[in-house]
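Structure ticket #2291
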Amino acid sequence: MRIGLLTAGGYPYVDGDAVLWCDRLVRGLGQHEFDVYALSRGPNRQDEDFVPLPPQVRRVRTAPLRTAEDDGVAHGRRARRRFAEHYGELVAAVCAAGAGSTVAEDASDAGSRDASGDQADRFGSALYGLAELARETGGLVGALRSDTAVRTLERACRAPQTLRTAREARVPDLLAVAAHLERALRPLSLDWYGDDGLGATDLCHATSGGPAALAGLLARHFGDVPLLVTEYGVHLRSHYLTLGPDTAAPAVRALLAAFQGLLAAEVYRAAAILTPGNAHARRWQERCGADRHRIRTVYPGMAADRFTDVGEAPDRADPDTLVWVGRVEPAKDLVSLLHAFAEVRKEQPGARLRIVGAPAGAEGAAYLGHCRALAAQLFPDEAEGAHAVGDNPVSFEEIGAPGAPTLPEAYAAGAVVVLSSVVEGFPISLVEAMFCGRASVSTDVGAVVEVIGGTGLVVPPRNPRALAEACVALLRDPERRERLGAAARARALELFTVEQNIAAFHSIYLEIVSHCPVRRVLLDESGEPLPFATPAESHVPGRWTGPTARTLPRTTPAWATDTPVRATPLAAEGAR
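Resolution: structure written out below.
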């Protein structure tokens, strides 16, 4: 089949997000053809920025996501009126979304759900109306940046029954919201949705929510192409975490949150299947209105081969060493880990802690400096005797250093692997430790409990005492460490390999196409419709069978369940 792979800021760019996962997926499904449609973060990205592409990638089309220039389209009076109408409906739905969330306690839940559904329908109708206008006129970039858009947004904010914070929006707030909406709606102006683009594919696979999923929505609207959405990190949750109180005014945050929530709800409603990467992401999708019967959890696939030597070899690690591996940033909460290690040293004086990882950007570098200073304060250099050189029990290293030349060897250096995060999505470092057959102590955040599944110890986040007690318990019990490590490796090989991930998506592709085939007119060499191009059994009317649907035994045909009708005698028929 032919797959339209939709990415935003990721594959096929070398420095994009989720490049490794997408590349493994495309290479693993060599029996299919892929057309890659990539929304890039920067302008004028060239082909040399791509990763090496396999032959099943037929073509790549790109468009800038954040730096699009004005399209130069001049709209006539009728087009401007249509734009004002549809854009007004869209921002009115945004301003009214969630307005009833603080109503009196005696308000019925059913009424709130009905009101929310009305706003979602209003948002969807306006969104597709803008898409059709963009397709007819050649683009809406200039219109979305115009004064008309800002004035329309202001009228929607000042209307009755809108969000209280929206009514308090000032001019700078309105300009900020209008600029964000223009960037978020840029996929409307792309020329990707015709018969020479996404309309020619059998399936659209959006590798994230947000802009990539919006392009898939439009392909579904214009070409009835089924949509698959994969979210290893929920786009709506990422938006909430990024746009915090220190980054924008309350009105801006409220309006943008309402817009992203309505867009996510429309994506979840229209997608044939959603594939979250873990149960944590699945709960977010269900909370936003996704039908649980159309959700299939597909764990990220990771290459286990590089960890085989460590995972299958006898454990030769220092029995008193704890190892932490990852990107150094505040969310990893290394401060709590250092305080926990101070408690560990009281019970295990010979214990050592190795922190292996590079800082993530400027913020990570500053945080690493703070952690180094804290370690020097908590653990002054110690010496075994009066004539020995002092040594700190905490070391900070990076992959490639003499003590940790490779990632597998970094995990192999410790008897116990520790994860101390306060925010975590899918814990990749924890899965790598499981591949290496290491026992672990982790904090209960994100998908940690789902990943570890009873093969390691889990403690509350921001609790150094509990973290220290769990580490001491494993350091003192080598047999328990060995049992947990073996169970962890077996679990990781069963659930989190590349092969498992590819097999799951191959099955889902077939499931979607079998239920939602794209029916298009195919022409022969003379330009005439090609007969029998689509087999008659490719589409069976009706809905997908849900868990409450009545199913019949395989041996009983459907027509046999109806009330029998007595045949008319031939003699009587002839007498007539």
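Closing remark: The chain is about 45% helix and 10% strand.
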